[in-house]
From TrEMBL:
<keyword id="KW-1133">Transmembrane helix</keyword>
<feature type="transmembrane region" description="Helical">
    <location>
        <begin position="297"/>
        <end position="320"/>
    </location>
</feature>
<keyword id="KW-1001">Plastid inner membrane</keyword>
<protein>
    <recommendedName>
        <fullName>Dicarboxylate transporter 2.1, chloroplastic</fullName>
    </recommendedName>
</protein>
<feature type="transmembrane region" description="Helical">
    <location>
        <begin position="526"/>
        <end position="549"/>
    </location>
</feature>
<dbReference type="InterPro" id="IPR001898">
    <property type="entry name" value="SLC13A/DASS"/>
</dbReference>
<feature type="transmembrane region" description="Helical">
    <location>
        <begin position="406"/>
        <end position="430"/>
    </location>
</feature>
<keyword id="KW-0812">Transmembrane</keyword>
<feature type="transmembrane region" description="Helical">
    <location>
        <begin position="117"/>
        <end position="141"/>
    </location>
</feature>
<dbReference type="Pfam" id="PF00939">
    <property type="entry name" value="Na_sulph_symp"/>
</dbReference>
<dbReference type="GO" id="GO:0015140">
    <property type="term" value="F:malate transmembrane transporter activity"/>
</dbReference>
<keyword id="KW-0934">Plastid</keyword>
<feature type="transmembrane region" description="Helical">
    <location>
        <begin position="153"/>
        <end position="177"/>
    </location>
</feature>
<feature type="transmembrane region" description="Helical">
    <location>
        <begin position="475"/>
        <end position="496"/>
    </location>
</feature>
<feature type="region of interest" description="Disordered">
    <location>
        <begin position="39"/>
        <end position="60"/>
    </location>
</feature>
<feature type="transmembrane region" description="Helical">
    <location>
        <begin position="442"/>
        <end position="463"/>
    </location>
</feature>
<keyword id="KW-0472">Membrane</keyword>
Length: 555
């Protein structure tokens, strides 16, 4: 106590406060982020020498903050911002593709100069989507600008696809997916399946796979299902089993669960028309080519149901044999799920609203044609209910950047593809392919297999399923029709094929990036098992699907 009195008695006088404008400037500098220890501050946790230093006559208060503020940038240097602008090599290659077609390739006599110029711009845009000189939306906008600036397309024609009903249906589907994540409904459904089927590793995998198939028709984004619902559950279960990412223990449980969910997600997306955004885009592009499918939701489900269910049931068992987990039994998983459900509490009001809205939307998607309600109107009604009742607010919609990005570049690609069809490019290409196939004397079933295999394997060059659809779906559908393949069968087969190649590589889809980024998968395993699973899926769809589609009268 005596030393404390001495310290106070010898304390120098307090400094005169600085003028207000200097204080503000000083505070602004000190408001920068400063790293502080996580240990709670307490007298008992401070060492003895530190305690005595604070009782010395020298006042530390005037020195601590300026020293901390000046040292913060040195101890935690800010990373230099990445250079902006386009990547020069991909930019040069993408532009070279279009320029070579426009000025070096001979224009066929039956193709107009306007159509040929639009084809060159379209091919340059597609090359940019593959090589990535800029983000997808930015590069698509540049392609649209080139089409308008060169007077290849008038402004109204270039932007006509922005009023496309299917594109807006895709945008609204992103908002539905956000509602599932925000309310926790998707998490609750998946946790129930873990509780019911999770006593073994194989049963746990089946529970997760079946739960995704159940919520897929009302949550039309495979990426959102992966990142917002299933990966968090898988990580929690894996860590509870001491299976950690980027460590040898990942093979205990996490690697198998992540790989199985990743490979099975394609069949969940293929099972329902509204389970993935690219499904809707495929049918819209088919309609542009004159392939109109009546009551598409029902016909799609009928066509996909049997082969997709067989593939969903086969995938967990296949991977259990060729990529087995070290842990075969998970007796704690149901208890963990039960505990999580207790923490979640009873179903909330917002979850009930989400359930009711999705039942309404799916019902209108199924029966809407009979009562004159289009799919996009059904989606608009559902979103309006979610906004009115506060399940979603407008900021949720504004923050869904992927939805607005998709609107921009989908509309550009769909608009260009439609104009290529109107200008005769697609019919010219299909006639050329038909002549080529006739020269090989291929029957339509053989041509169908060759074209489907080519469409599938080309995806190794793409980092997006929807980008692949925008670039190649129309051309391949025209080739199918020119080869004599039944039109509706061609449209459905290509669309379903688009879902199945989403697990080929770690970059083949949005969900691929989500699952691979979790740290439980090795890159060689992704390529090896992606190819093996793709072969098995092809065999199932080729055998079961062929028999089933014959029974349905698709050919």
């Amino acid at each position: 106590m005596e030393s404390l009195r001495l310290a106070v008695a010898h304390r120098p006088p307090l400094p005169v406060p600085a003028p207000a404008h200097l204080r503000r400037r000083h505070l602004l500098r000190l408001s920068d982020p400063i790293s502080l220890p996580r240990t709670p501050l307490s007298l008992s946790s401070s060492p003895a020498p530190h305690h005595h230093r604070h009782l010395s006559p020298t006042p530390p208060r005037r020195l601590v903050l300026p020293l901390l503020a000046s040292k913060a940038p040195d101890s935690n240097p800010e990373p230099e911002p990445a250079p902006g602008g386009a990547k020069l090599v991909p930019l040069a290659i993408s532009l070279a593709v279009g320029l070579a077609v426009r000025f070096l390739a001979p224009r066929p006599a039956e193709v107009s100069p306007q159509a040929w110029q639009l084809l060159s711009i379209f091919l340059s845009t597609i090359a940019g989507l593959v090589l990535g000189p800029l983000p997808v939306g930015a590069w698509a906008f540049l392609g649209l600008t080139a089409a308008v600036a060169t007077r290849t397309l008038p402004f109204a024609a270039a932007f006509s696809a922005f009023t496309n009903e299917v594109i807006w249906l895709i945008v609204i589907s992103f908002f539905f997916a956000r509602g599932f994540v925000k309310t926790g409904l998707g998490d609750r459904i998946a946790t129930y399946f873990v509780k019911w089927l999770g006593s073994s590793t194989l049963g746990l995998s089946y529970g997760l796979t079946i739960s995704e198939a159940c919520i897929a028709p009302a949550m039309p984004s495979t990426t959102a299902r992966a990142g917002g619902v299933f990966l968090p559950i898988i990580k929690s279960l894996s860590l509870s089993a001491d299976s950690k990412p980027n460590q040898p223990s990942s093979r205990k449980l996490g690697s198998y669960l992540v790989m199985t969910q990743f490979q099975a997600s394609g069949n969940s997306s293929a099972l329902f028309l509204t389970a993935a955004a690219q499904n809707l885009l495929c049918l819209k592009l088919a309609e542009e080519l004159g392939v109109v499918i009546n009551n598409p939701w029902v016909l799609w489900f009928k066509a996909a149901s049997l082969p997709a269910i067989v593939s969903l049931l086969a995938t967990p068992y296949l991977l259990y044999k060729i990529f087995p987990p070290d842990t075969k039994d998970t007796p704690d998983a149901p208890a963990l799920a039960e505990e999580k459900l207790k923490r979640m509490g009873p179903v909330t009001k917002n979850e009930w609203v989400m359930i009711g809205t999705m039942i309404l939307a799916v019902s209108l998607w199924v029966f809407g044609d009979a009562i004159g309600v289009s799919s996009v109107v059904a989606a608009m009604l559902g979103l309006s209910i979610l906004l009115l009742l506060g399940v979603l607010d407008w900021d949720d919609c504004l923050n869904e950047k992927s939805a607005w990005d998709t609107l921009a570049w989908f509309a550009v690609l769909v608009g260009m593809a439609a104009q290529l069809t109107n200008l005769g490019i697609v019919s010219w290409m299909s006639s050329c392919v038909a002549k080529l196939l006739q020269s090989f004397s291929l029957s339509w079933p053989t041509a169908f297999c060759v074209l489907e295999a080519s469409y599938f394997l080309i995806h190794y060059l793409f980092a997006s399923q929807t980008g692949h659809v925008g670039a190649l779906y129309s051309a391949f559908l025209a080739m199918h029709v020119a080869a004599g393949v039944p039109r509706v069968m061609s449209a459905l087969a290509l669309a379903i094929n688009t879902n199945l190649f989403g697990a080929l590589t770690h970059y083949s889809s949005g969900q691929a990036a989500v699952y691979f980024g979790a740290g439980y998968l090795e890159l060689p395993d992704v390529f090896r098992l992606g190819f093996i699973t793709a072969l098995v899926n092809t065999l199932i769809w080729g055998v079961v699907g062929t028999i089933w589609w014959k029974f349905l009268g698709l050919y």
